Structures are given as C-alpha cells and as structure tokens.
## 1
Amino acid sequence: MLKIVVMVSGGGTNLQAIIDSISKGRISNTQITGVISSKPDVYALTRAKENDIPCCSISKKSYTDTESYQQALLKALSNYQPDLIVLAGYLPIVPAVVIEMYRNRIINIHPSLIPSFCGTGCYGIHVHEAVLERGVKITGATVHFVDEGTDTGPILLQKAVLVENGDTPQDLQQRVMEEAEWVILPRAINAIANGTIIRENQNVWIRE
Ligand code: GRF
C-alpha cells in the first residue's frame, strides 16, 4: 500500500481528483495518510476533513525563523509517514531539507507542457495568462519529479489541451484542469503505487 501525503495551497481540485480516483478504483494500492496546506483557511482542507483524511497547515509566516518552519514541516510529514509526496497546487518552494529527505519521492503537477511556461513566477493562473499572451495553440499539463530546481525534475506524464479562440485565462485553466491535470496526476500516482515506472536517469516512462 503506497502511503501518500498531498500538499496543497488552494481549492484542492487536484486533491479531490485523487480522492475520487481512489474511491472509484482508478488509483489502486494507495492511501492518503495526510494533507498538508501552506495556508490555514483553504478549501482543500475542507475536502480533506470531509473525507476523514488527517490534515494540518504549516505556514511559513507562522514561524519566527526558517529553521523552525522547516523542522515543523519535516515533523508534519514524518507524522504521516509518506512513501510519496504529491504537490497538488502547492505554491511555496519546497525546502532543500525536505527534497533531500524524500529524494525521488516527490511529484508535482504543473499546468503547462514543461519546459514551456514554467519556472519562477509562472504558476496557477499566471501560466494561462502567459500562454494566451504568447498565442500558442496547444498547452496542457505535466507531472514531474521534484528536485532542487523550479519545475526542473524528470518528466513523468504530460497531456495536451487545445487553446480555443476567445479563451480567457480562467477558461483555459478550467479546461487544463479538467482535461489534463485531473487525469494525469491520478494516473501517475497509480503507476508509482503499482510499480510500473521505468526510470533511466532523466528519462522516466510508465510501462503500459
Ligand atoms: C491549478 O491551477 C493547478 O494547475 C496548480 O494549482 C492550481 C490550483 O490547484 N497546480 P488546486 O485546485 O488547488 O488543486
């Protein structure tokens, strides 16, 4: 049984997709042992409580110094004993001590086709604003392993989504979530839970 901790910062629609996929059997052999939010009053925590999933919030601004914040985050994680950490709309930079402790066991969902429209400052709705600004016709989402960089770890899954004439950033965000994020994140978790990942350095594949 793969124990996962989901880290969130907002509405938790990706968390909900994982919860629903587990309950419908699209993700097997997996248990969400905890949800950690970077903010205390987000709907993602409501979703966790509604599904009887232990949860807490660890906000950097609640701590007087970086060291105590990082220790609190590590303690919260160790309480849930994760085999895999899933960043699902989680906005803060993951501290290096966490990446070191859980090396190769952290994945993230990003709302573009990395390496396009990613990196520092390119997150959430800003991604879709940049996509529309550039006028690309195809965008999508990416699940990747997390390393010390920003959106730089090995890519695990991607799914393309068409940009439509007249799209607002909000239209595009919703389509990318529905058609890509909520599909590939559960698929990636299920592959990890069932040992169908093939990894050769930076190249990662799912054995169908
Ligand atoms: C979404 O835009 C998602 O692409 C990004 O964070 C935003 C909120 O996600 N990763 P969620 O609804 O909190 O899962």
## 2
Amino acid sequence: MAKSALITGITGQDGAYLAKLLLDKGYQVYGLVARRSSDTRWRLRELGIEGDIQYLEGDLADGSSLQRALLKARPDEVYNLGAQSFVGSSWDQPIITGVVDGLGVTHLLEAIRQLSPDTRFYQASTSEMFGLIQAERQDENTPFYPRSPYGVAKLYGHWITVNYRESFKLHASSGILFNHESPLRGIEFVTRKVTDAAARIKLGKQKELRLGNIDAKRDWGFAGDYVEAMWLMLQQEQADDYVVATGITTTVRDMCELAFTHVGLNYRDHVVIDPQFFRPAEVDVLLGNPDKARAKLNWQAQTSLAQLIEMMVEADLRRVGRE
Ligand code: NAP
Ligand code: G4F
C-alpha cells in the first residue's frame, strides 16, 4: 500500500520540493494549510503539483486543528516544516514566532503521541541554533547559542523533539539544516533578494540593491538536495538528529558577485549598504560539518553555490521578463 505523509508548511519553499519528492515516490501527500486572505500556492503550481495534494486546514498555533488533520490523514510520516521562518521578522513578532516555531512543535508531537504514536516525525531545525558559534565547523555535538527570537524558538522545537523521542519512544528526528535556497525561495531572504535584483537591474527595471551586513557568511545549499535528507532521516530504523550542510561557507558579498557576474554586471556598481537591514544581533558565520549525514544517510549536497545562484538568476530573468 502507498505510504502517506502530512507536511506542515507545504506552501513554503521546502514544503513544495518535499511534496514533489514524495509524490514522485508514490506517496499520498496531505498538506496542512493555514488560513490566509490571499493565494499561497504559487510554488506548488510552479512545480506542477498543486492538484495532486490533499489540503487540510490547520495552524500550528491551534493544537485542535492538528489533531483533526492527523485523524483525517492517518499519515505514516509527518514533516513539520511550518514556521515563521524569517529571522529578521522574529524581532518584530517574537511572540508569534515562539508560539508557532516553538510551542507549535509540542502541539504536533502531543497529537502524534496521543492519536498516532507509530507515525514518524521530522522536525525542521536550523543552523540558526548555533548562532554565536562555539566551534569553527558546527556538527551535532556543537553547543547551541541562538542569536534571534527565531533561533531561540527553534531551539525549543529541537529539544522538545529530542525529549519526546526519549520520553515516549516516538520515531522523531531533528534535521539541523543549514541555509538552503532555490528559485522558490521567498524574496525576503538574501539570496533571492540578490538574484531578483540582478535580474531586474540587468533588464533595466531597477537601479540599486540595498543590503545590510554583506560580510556575513553562510553555508548555502540547494533546497532540492536538502529535502532528500529529510526523507532519508525518516527511513532509518532509529530516529536521530543530523546536520545537513555543504561544508563550505561564503560571504553575502561573494554570493552577490556570483549573481551579478552571471548577468555581466559588477555588484559594486549597484549594491548600497543600508543600516535598516542590519539585525539587532547577527550570526556572523555558519559552516556545517555534514559527516554524520554522509556516513549514516549516504547523503551529500549535489549542487554548488555557483550552480545554485545561476539557477536562481536564470529563473528570475524569466520571471522579470514575463512581467
Ligand atoms: P518558508 O518558505 O518560509 O515556508 C514556511 C511555511 O510555514 C509556509 O508554508 C507557511 O505558510 C507556513 N506557516 C507559517 N506560519 C504557520 C502557522 N502558524 N501554521 C502552519 N503553517 C505555517 O520556509 P522554508 O524555507 O520552506 O523552511 C521550511 C522549514 O525549515 C521552516 O520551519 C524553517 O524555519 C526551517 N529551516 C529553513 C532553512 C532554510 O534555509 N530554508 C534552514 C533551516 C531550517 P504560508 O505560506 O501560508 O505563510
Ligand atoms: O537570507 P537570510 O535572511 O537568512 P538567515 O537569517 O541566515 O536565515 C535563513 O537560514 C536559516 C538557517 O541558518 C533558517 F533557519 C532561516 O529560516 C532562514 O531560512 O540572511 C542571511 C545573511 C544574514 O547574515 C543577514 O544579516 O544575510 C545577511 N543580509 C545582509 N543583507 C541580509 C541582507 N539578509 C536579508 N534577508 N536581507 C538583506 O538585505
């Protein structure tokens, strides 16, 4: 019989790629969708899978909606990707970030524990939990030091996942994923902001690009590669926690150079530093050590940053050209 999966955050970047992966593997895919006043399914449409998903209304802040979704879907696997995922907004909306990204995980784990304890669970944890880094390369044993309300809320989500695994023997795994991007990335995140701007400037629709701290360094990979790692975690006999990363770190500045060079421009002619994009506390550098994922999941990143940025700029050139 076909397996079934429930994905929270299915309308987001990772939700869309994961849904496609699972559909291609023959899963029945249910997606939890929070009520919004406008359409949020553009990514699912871009991947051509909007009509292949069973949508269930629910919100991570409302435990009763999660219980109903679980009873309807009766999933073999739950992937908890739903979150207020933009670090910058977490200082402006710290409470809802905590409710959704932190307590929301407990709502979901409680529903699984009480209604469907054999369901396997994936938690979307993050390298933001390392924050003020305590080791040059961060792995599963590196101490955490979050630097934003988002990072703090996600750390709670991570530990409650570990706790429910240890307390109730749930098959609950936490993927500590480093930054991953794609043409489906939200426009507020720096890579997509840069690739969209490079395309607009190239096509004469924008003149400058205003950025914050371009000396920050991130370990950037391709979202399409990273959803494979999520799925692999739930196929293991034992649940566990894994760092998922490329093992290479790059400055925002060098990432800009890749994007602008691809369209024949010099980023220095267009990037303007704007203090409004500096954060109250910064994560200066992230660099993951994915050795455990390589050894136990046989997973490794397939896409270089140069390939990723090229793919994103090309997609934005097509989009801007159609406008
Ligand atoms: P994203 O594009 O921002 O998607 C977030 C998803 O969460 C959207 O579908 C959103 O729905 C949904 N959501 C927001 N609030 C919700 C609520 N109260 N109840 C239910 N769903 C809600 O994020 P992403 O990049 O795909 O990331 C997926 C997950 O991985 C997130 O948990 C993120 O924190 C985590 N993560 C991401 C990265 C990365 O680099 N991308 C790295 C590490 C961890 P709407 O569309 O309706 O707003
Ligand atoms: O693209 P960002 O907003 O991503 P950030 O803060 O690293 O968070 C992303 O990755 C996390 C994993 O580590 C996820 F958990 C999280 O959900 C999200 O997906 O910013 C990257 C860097 C930061 O240092 C930021 O200060 O770029 C710097 N930056 C410089 N100028 C900017 C800008 N970031 C944004 N968004 N916009 C700017 O104008």
